[in-house]
Design a protein that fits this description.
With about 290 residues, the chain is mainly α. The chain contains 15 helices and 4 strands. A two-stranded antiparallel ribbon has the order 1-2.
């Protein structure tokens, strides 16, 4: 199973994961320190990551010298808190998890973000996380729009006063490749993980459509004022827009494998590889702007 999935365990699995012997687990259960397992029969019981976290808490408190009666009281209080989160303030806690996830995904990307990063920022345990989301991917899908919006606030700020359509396009590319390599990581995730996941496939198409429209508008603006030769047709602009989306993904790979390439040299190469040429009087100024 993938990272972040809350899977059920037999007691032998719980022993290995927690380092606590089964006779001790049974003792904790009988004393009311540990949550009851999920039973599917008289002798068949299943445990989850919640039990592993509870065992960790119990061992920590015992090492610190807490008497067993106080450990039991604190563990009961812990369970009551989780139950209240699940019922009363669930929407607030979920909102907090989403807000912190947006911030951390935007800064670290999907692959480098761990569930513990998010729960630590909110100040809750991972068992609380699983009350709201089955795993990291589900949380990412829920907040991916806000993640991209947060990441590109500096892009909008950088280009909001730029009227030159091609310079706007190049500035977008520079900022993405220099400041947001994790953006490419997320695009690749959306492409890889869509199999058997219709929700993620829809989200991927929405995001790529948004990127496509942004590039297309800049290229149409350039064509309108005669910056591209020969004059591109509507179909030419559409195809070139898709090519430039792929270029962003490829450029990140090229720079990671060969540092001699700069963002500007790759952007220049991408434009030169098409059959369209920039107006000569504008070309040098554009790349230096």
């Amino acid at each position: 199973m993938t990272e972040g999935q809350s899977k059920l365990m037999r007691i032998s699995d719980l022993e290995r994961r927690s380092g606590v012997k089964r006779r001790t687990i049974h003792y904790y259960m009988s004393e009311g320190l540990l949550s009851s397992p999920k039973r599917t029969g008289k002798t068949m019981a299943y445990y989850s990551s919640v039990h592993a976290e509870e065992l960790g808490e119990i061992r920590r408190m015992q090492k610190e010298g807490y008497p067993l009666s106080l450990v039991k009281e604190l563990m009961n209080a812990r369970r009551n808190t989780l139950q209240s989160l699940e019922s009363g303030s669930k929407s607030d806690r979920k909102r907090q998890l989403v807000e912190r996830a947006v911030e951390i995904f935007s800064r670290k990307g999907y692959s480098q973000t761990r569930i513990s990063d998010i729960t630590g920022a909110v100040g809750v345990g991972q068992s609380t996380f699983y009350l709201y989301f089955p795993g990291k991917k589900a949380l990412f899908i829920e907040c991916v729009d806000k993640v991209f919006q947060t990441m590109f606030q500096d892009v909008w700020e950088e280009i909001k006063h730029e009227k030159h359509p091609l310079r706007r396009l190049l500035k977008r590319g520079r900022i993405v490749l220099k400041s947001h390599p994790q953006f490419v990581d997320m695009l690749l995730l959306l492409s890889i993980e869509v199999e058997n996941d219709p929700v993620l496939e829809i989200k991927r198409k929405e995001i790529y459509a948004s990127i496509f429209e942004t590039i297309r508008r800049d290229l149409e603006g350039a064509a309108r004022v005669g910056l591209l030769r020969p004059e591109p047709s509507e179909e030419d602009i559409e195809v070139l827009s898709y090519i430039l989306i792929g270029f962003v993904e490829t450029a990140a790979l090229i720079m990671s494998m060969n540092p001699q390439y700069s963002v500007d040299s790759l952007l220049k190469a991408a434009l030169q590889l098409t059959r369209f040429k920039l107006v000569e009087t504008d070309y040098k100024d554009l790349l230096e702007g």
